[in-house]
Amino acid sequence: MAKKSVASQRYLLINAGRLIDGRAKTAIPNGAVLIQGSKVVAAGRASAVRAPDGAAVDTIEYPGMTVMPGMVDCHTHHNGFGDGRPGDFVADVPDEVLALQSARNARASLFTGVTTIRENGPKAYTMLRLRESVNAGLAVGPRMVLCGWPVSIIGGHMWYFGGQTTGPTEVRAMVRRLVKEGADYIKVTATGGTTKTSYPLLPSFNVDELKAVADTAHGLGKLTAAHCTATQGIVNALDGGIDMIIHCTFRDADGKDRFREDIAERIGKQGTYVNPTLQVLRSTVWALERKKQERALTPNEQARLDFFQRNFDRRMEDCRRLVGMGLKVITGSDSSWTDYQLGNTVYEVECLTDVGFSPMRAVQSVTADAAVALGVDRIVGTLEPGKEADVIVVDGDPSRDVRALWNVREVFLAGKRVERGSDASIAATRQHPPSES
Amino acid sequence: MKQKTFTFKLIKAPRLIDDTGGRVLEQAAVLIEGDAIRAVGTEEAVVPPEGAQVEELSYKDATILPGLVDCHVHMNGIGDGRAGDELTTLPDEVLTLQSAKNARAHLYSGVTTLRDCGGKNRTTFMLRQAVGMGITPAPRMLLAGRPMAIIGGHLSYFGIAATGEVECRAAVRQLVKEGADFVKITATGGSTRTSIRTRPSFNPDEMKAIVDEAHKFGRHVVAHCVSSQGMVNALDAGVDTIVHAIHQEADGAFKYRPEIADRIARQGVFVNPTFSVVRKHMRNLEAKVEDGTITPAQQESLDGLNVSYEAMVNGFQKMRKAGVTMVCGSDSAWLDSPMGNFQAELVAEVDAGMKPMEAIVSATRDSARSCQVDDKVGTLAKGKQADILVVKGNPARDVNDLYNIQDVFLAGQRIDRGNYV
What we know:
The structure holds two protein chains of two kinds. Chain A has helices spanning 2-8, 87-92, 95-111, 126-135, 167-181, 207-219, 231-240, 261-270, 279-294, 299-324, 345-354, 359-365, 368-374, 423-427; strands at residues 11-19, 28-36, 39-45, 57-69, 71-76, 114-119, 143-145, 185-189, 223-227, 244-246, 273-275, 328-329, 391-395, 408-413, 416-417. By secondary structure, chain A is of the alpha/beta class. Chain A has two domains: 2-69 and 382-436, Urease, subunit C, domain 1 (Roll); 71-368, Metal-dependent hydrolases (TIM Barrel). In chain A, the strands form three sheets. A seven-stranded mixed sheet of chain A has the order 3-2-1-4-13-14-15, with no helix packed on it. The longest helix of chain A is centred in the C-terminal third of the chain and has 26 residues, at 299-324. Residues 1-7 of chain A have low confidence and may be disordered. The model of chain B has no long low-confidence stretch (mean pLDDT 96). Chain B is of the alpha/beta class. In chain B, the strands form three sheets. In chain B, strands 1, 2, 3, 4, 5, 13, 14 and 15 form an eight-stranded mixed sheet that branches. A four-stranded parallel sheet of chain B has the order 9-10-11-12. Chain B folds into two domains: 8-67 and 378-414, Urease, subunit C, domain 1 (Roll); 68-341, TIM Barrel (Alpha-Beta Barrel), CATH 3.20.20.140. The radius of gyration of chain B is 21 Å and the shape is globular. At the A-B interface, α3, α4 and α14 of A face α2 and α3 of B.
């Protein structure tokens, strides 16, 4: 027993070429992070960070590299495969198998530097069970902000995961039940989506139902997020008081893209977060282009490719406007969904720099700002005394070029170095644009 | 850039343990074509076809041997000492996750085929489905699914508590439908709280119905027997493997029964002794004695295990003399034995009197025979699946060398044992 308490007094000191603490607007040269147990004790210039005199310290040096907070991905689907198979397929896979797929995805996330995820649509208890396994030490994964399963209308987007409800009372009951089961926030699909029986251009829930989602969740201290692939869904979500708009597609019921500055202004005024999910569209473009390199596309495939390319370009353009208007745009990958696989969150970060984020803003968007958006900023997101020591070390300087985030060399979760295995196995999780494959 | 694909792999090492079980070839080689073995022999004798693309792997101071076959695992297990009664309270998703972890650990430690002797509900079948989808790696798996148990019987908490011939047949048919490769019966009680160790569970008519139904579908039957009458019933019913095979009377007395051993030998039934899981548990209890934390109940358990283990070793030696084929199965991750340490069972067999080479044969060729997969695996021979293990040293001299894994090949594929994704 005595031995153990001495061991827990040990400090871990990480020295690196620079530190991004998630707060400062620039990287700090010759940075250091001091960790004790699961927590950050100090972070700053190496000369200013030291353990108390006489304390036992293990020091690790990462010369030329950057030490920074672990990444926070606001939008994941750990049940998914990201190989083109739709959600309707995923829903037919038995829960036990989905738990295994989720565990694999969770490792891919963690090993590539994502130390916190917010899960946006798993089936039934699969992710709750995975977290139970991680907490029991039986599995490995990042911190998880879970919704349980998404709330939808009958036949609505992701109804197949178990959350079909009708009317404010049923919605209220569903939210309470989710919170009872362990949900940290509530995900609702405010429009249809890729789900076969849903209508992506139309709203799903009525405003009174969305209000019931938000009010019940807020009453229990939980945040909310709404999937919106149509303009009326965005309006309804704003009316309902939802905290985060996902996709935020400005598209009318006739299928026409019409950016609505008035609605965008309202999003800004209400302080609602926007999670634009750009790379998930480009992933499908890449998948079809790759197919096109192998053989001629069918007319349907070509039409799909054209649609996704147009859609991606348009969403990028819209997102550039949202960023320009100063809205709270946040990084969330939406992987593994359609053709986008977990372990590739950095592509979404790249997209956001393409629409106007500076590299540092993009880094903060996938660390500090994301943690605020998820309401977990008291625990993670920056490297400050008292926060959990979720730390990554990357080769290069992401504050100059976010592609350095691909070069994760080390991951610490709650102060513990994560055993990530062979480089080859981690490299295999990366998806590549068609030209490179 | 497209990765170079090799159709052939040529593996060379100073030593090779082949199919005969006893022979060590010097300066040997195996030629793999795709997933199968194309040739085995001395380096000079094993020559790839002219013009073939060959990936050559040469190992210094190493021994090539067949991938290990663990004929007794419980992938649901955690191996942290918790009883099955506790284990089974975990949700199926959690147990499936644990099974995947165990399967991976076993594969990376050199086991290329395992036989799972019982998990909860459909968890092991679900693991197989996930493996088929490429979600997680695993050795070849022979699955029982849920064990056949009586009401309150050993492992009945995993989902089957059958009574009478008809229910037994229905349960077997259901297992076969779900994908069972063999049927596991708990023919006596065991560690399950509501079961009675020293007594048989199923009646002979039920046992016969189970075996009859399983054999009808070409499935073999493995019977858990920790007391003598259970063995007699299992033999009467015609089971194929007896697990534990402890000669213990209903009154608790350990009494070796030579006539049972003779019948086992005569009927060609395999025996899987499961030493290591018992020994590890004893060691953990002894550690508690050392640091003074043992409870009276644990002390009583340890005293009992000491007697029981001695009886197991005695039975093992006598049954071998009587001509019984012993097959190696770890029983991990039951009790305190995590998976990924099948080697401990071979070490225990050697400690109980086998020569290292005999233990290796019991954990490869003979284990594969008891699993009825010896047409595919268990030995290194032309046409067999290329499930191959390379270890540093010479395990035929020191069985502990099996811990020094250099490489594992499953169906001709070299396993990245550092892949944790």
